[in-house]
Design brief:
The complex is a heterodimer. Chain A is mostly helical. In chain A, 75% of the residues lie in helices and 0% in strands. The longest helix of chain B is centred in the C-terminal third of the chain and has 18 residues, at 167-184. Classes of the chains: A mainly alpha, B alpha/beta.
Chain lengths: 263, 244
């Protein structure tokens, strides 16, 4: 593992975002739109839900945190697609770069992207709705870390699938993250789900994060049990996703698919 | 006799039921340009990709600089590079930014100096700040070649390196490659569909057909063995599957 190769790849993506307005919009436009539309809907609905304290906090907090997960996943899978679209994978993997360094560089890109998005969203939420995400308190840090790691796991799996099944599966880069949304209990508690979905939700790290967030806002307590669940599941899933990526990478090399992707 | 820098023994690649490369063995020596010739589907690109570790062989051994490619790929590839018409550089980066990224990837010392040298050699200094998407195909090919030389490679794999270059730049590129080969004892594995170029460039040629080596030797030896006037005629004979 060589840091200069990770930095080289990271630099390549930073060059890309530095001057590309469409790419910058892709990072900021959708989160901004989400925040404005859902934020104002929340403000409107809150007028009728006087008996539910922290309605805005629940909703906007969830929105910002969900976006962190989604951007974390996109930071991996869309950055990988940039190399596919540029037909650059061959050049990269013909160099001493290895799969682990490649994935690490994408993780780094995803962290930078989501720091940018989260900062902008948090600032706008404060400006438009006087909502302070830091109200969630110290739990915010492990919440965010868990969402980032879950996003990475989904991103790594997506990348492996696109490598294996080709560019026609690139829609997964946008779709796979959303598949987890209904069972992540982002905007509603797990208890409203039907029993079979409740069982699935128990094994989705994000559902524990969002349940934990609601607990913090409602009671002010530290949701240790939810955080332990989320961290344990995430540790397992990120390991599984990495193992899946390596296994798949070897299959792709054996089948000679690495050189065909993007053609 | 020098030790070969590349030793390939019994290399075979099977994709499902297709034997793309069939028990191929050859060596590449220091300072030698070895031409890989053959019709489409002969196995040239698959061999090149196996030599780069991008495709895993079904069987056979590849040793580069005396090391097993399977075990020492990272170390070996540091001194190898390639340019292929199947790969391009990110077109949202400038010419110079692309070279900077690859200079970092290969940990080139004095990056700026090396990049300036290559921009000058390939006569692309005036477009160094242009986005790749805004430069001509010929300039992109020159950028690919500049990238291929960024790490002072000892072995270069070139797949159709002069495709899309005008005759003047193509000629300059060939002269340049020959000069680098001579000065730095560079070994080159060269594939092209330009038979005249293959005759001019290659010290030795391996002729592939359906994944197997059907002829090997100096260009003039192959032409003589096939009783043809030039490599183009040899190629046509093989491609049209006359009795070989």
């Amino acid at each position: 593992m060589k840091s200069h190769r990770i930095i080289a790849l990271f630099t390549r993506h930073m060059y890309l975002y530095r001057r590309s307005l469409p790419r910058l919009m892709e990072i900021f436009y959708w989160p901004l739109l989400d925040l404005l539309v859902w934020g104002f809907i929340t403000v409107y609905l809150a007028q009728f839900r006087q008996n539910l304290p922290g309605f805005i906090t629940f909703f906007l907090g969830a929105l910002i945190l969900w976006d962190i997960l989604f951007r974390s996943q996109q930071g991996i899978s869309v950055s990988f697609l940039e190399d596919v679209w540029a037909r650059n994978l061959l050049n990269l993997f013909a160099s001493p770069l290895n799969a682990a360094e490649y994935i690490l560089s994408l993780m780094l890109v995803s962290v930078v992207k989501l720091i940018a998005v989260a900062t902008i969203m948090a600032a706008l939420a404060w400006i438009f709705y006087s909502f302070n995400i830091f109200l969630i308190g110290i739990s915010l840090i492990p919440f965010v870390l868990n969402l980032i790691i879950m996003g990475w796991s989904i991103g790594i799996i997506t990348t492996a699938l696109i490598l294996r099944f080709g560019q026609e599966t690139e829609v997964l880069a946008w779709a796979l993250g959303f598949m987890f949304m209904p069972v992540s209990a982002v905007f509603y508690p797990v208890s409203v789900l039907p029993p079979f979905l409740r069982t699935i939700a128990r094994y989705v790290p994000a559902s524990h994060v969002f349940e934990g967030m609601r607990e913090v806002i409602s009671t002010g307590g530290f949701p240790l049990s939810e955080l332990l669940w989320a961290s344990g599941l995430n540790t397992m899933y990120v390991l599984i996703s990495l193992l899946f990526f390596y296994w798949n990478f070897n299959v792709v090399k054996r089948k000679g698919l690495l050189v065909r992707i993007g053609e | 006799m020098f030790e070969p820098v590349v030793e390939v023994n019994g290399l075979t690649k099977i994709f499902k039921s297709l034997k793309a490369v069939d028990n191929v063995s050859f060596d590449i020596y220091p300072g030698e340009i070895l031409g890989l010739l053959g019709p489409n589907g002969a196995g040239k690109t698959t061999i090149t990709h196996m030599l780069l570790g991008l495709t895993t062989p079904t069987s056979g051994d590849i040793n580069v600089f005396g090391f097993d490619l399977k075990k020492y790929r990272e170390k070996i590839i540091q001194d190898v590079n390639f340019s292929s018409s199947y790969a391009s550089m990110p077109n949202s980066l400038t010419v110079k930014e692309n070279l900077k990224v690859f200079a970092r990837l290969y940990k080139v010392k004095k990056k700026e100096k090396r990049i300036s040298e290559l921009l000058k050699i390939f006569e692309i200094e005036d477009i160094e700040d242009k986005l790749v998407r805004h430069i001509s195909t010929g300039h992109q090919t020159r950028l690919n070649l500049a990238k291929a030389l960024i790490n002072y490679p000892k072995i270069l794999f070139l797949d159709e390196p002069t495709a899309s270059l005008d005759p003047d730049i193509a000629d300059k590129t060939r002269s340049l490659l020959k000069s680098i080969k001579k000065n730095r004892n560079l070994s080159i594995l060269y594939t092209s569909h330009n038979m005249k170029e293959m005759e001019e460039m290659s010290d030795r040629i391996i002729f592939l057909h359906k994944g197997r080596i059907i002829a090997e030797g100096r260009p003039e030896e192959i032409i003589r063995d096939f009783r043809r006037k030039n490599l183009e005629e040899v190629f046509l004979k093989v491609a049209r599957e006359e009795k070989i």
